[in-house]
Amino acid sequence: MLVVINPNNPTGHQWSVATLLDWHQRLAAHGGWLIVDEAFMDATPDDSLLPYLPRPGLIVLRSLGKFFGLAGARVGFLCADEELQTQAQMQLGPWTLCHAARWIARHALTDAIWQVTTRDALPHASARLAKLLSYHRLMPTGGTALFQWVQRADAARIYVALAQQGVLVRHFAESASLRFGLPGDASEWQRLSLALAALVHE
Length: 202
What we know:
Layout: E1 2-5, H1 17-28, E2 34-37, E3 58-63, E4 76-79, H2 82-92, H3 99-110, H4 112-135, E5 142-143, E6 147-151, H5 155-164, E7 170-172, E8 177-181, H6 186-200
Parallel strand pairs: 1-2, 2-3
Antiparallel strand pairs: 3-4, 5-6, 6-8, 7-8
């Protein structure tokens, strides 16, 4: 069994469809599974393995938490061949999602106009974030359309300093790094910029 996070969190590294299908073929030949977590894939759907399902031993996991910004709904999807889906359903039982989460998920997934608009806007916002971080001497090491990743030996110090200013980022102890999500509006961009500027004067 091989588990791949694609795009990777937090590095942003992305494996090609051809590479993943090759790994799946080699695993399936021996009864193995390739499990691909595509939680960050909605921004680049052309790179997804979903069009290649169903295939025995290929499992793709998706979520509404990242691209759709609906982590609180706790909605995820297991995409696989029918036999595996049936086995998973028997284990999970009949009430895996509450009514409110189902309603939210249906509206999010059917709002095609919002999805197209957001996919167009995200790369620009991510590039803007990378530029802002670089300006404040926090050069991104990797990232996706949804976040930027910065490796720094003093990541813990920066994390605390930003938190004290009300700016929350994801801190990773190993390797020492920070993941910056995209600010939501103009005021949040301004707040992040001011918080980053304050780091220089510490």
